[in-house]
Amino acid sequence: MEKLYTAVVTAKGGRDGHIKSSDGVIDLELKAPKAMGGEDGYANPELLFAGAWGSCYLGALGSVGKRDNVDVKEATVDVHISFNKESEASYNLSAELHVHIPGLDLEKAQKLADAAHKGCPYSKATRGNIDVKIIAE
């Protein structure tokens, strides 16, 4: 395996803390979301994960579209990351990726969406670890 890039982000303070990337591009205060006793208006780990996964997923969709000669430049994905309580001291994540590919019938869109999920590095990292649904719309 050849490393192409390594991101470095330092986190302090947990969900009510701060993150900063080594290159200074990311420099954010974090707060738990209001639904979890925090405050609105701040980034949180689930938002960051959803954004990162969505961006990576669209890259994989672009590769699949190119392979299959399907234009997916206008495609969008809404990534829903849920923070779930399993028990008093145990939590997990679940995800839904809602994929929209304009001009494509749902059956073909679902096939492309599933193929992108198979190749996306974030999808690979979560495979078998969290419940994930890929939904073409």
Automatic annotation (TrEMBL):
Pfam family, one: OsmC
InterPro entries associated with the record: KH_dom-like_a/b (IPR015946), OHR (IPR019953), OsmC/Ohr_fam (IPR003718), OsmC/Ohrsf (IPR036102)
GO terms of biological process kind: response to oxidative stress
NCBIfam families assigned to the protein according to its UniProt record, in alphabetical order: organ_hyd_perox
Family assignment from sequence similarity: Belongs to the OsmC/Ohr family.
Protein name in the entry: Peroxiredoxin, Ohr subfamily
Organism, scientific name: Mucilaginibacter paludis DSM 18603
Lineage of the organism: Bacteria, Pseudomonadati, Bacteroidota, Sphingobacteriia, Sphingobacteriales
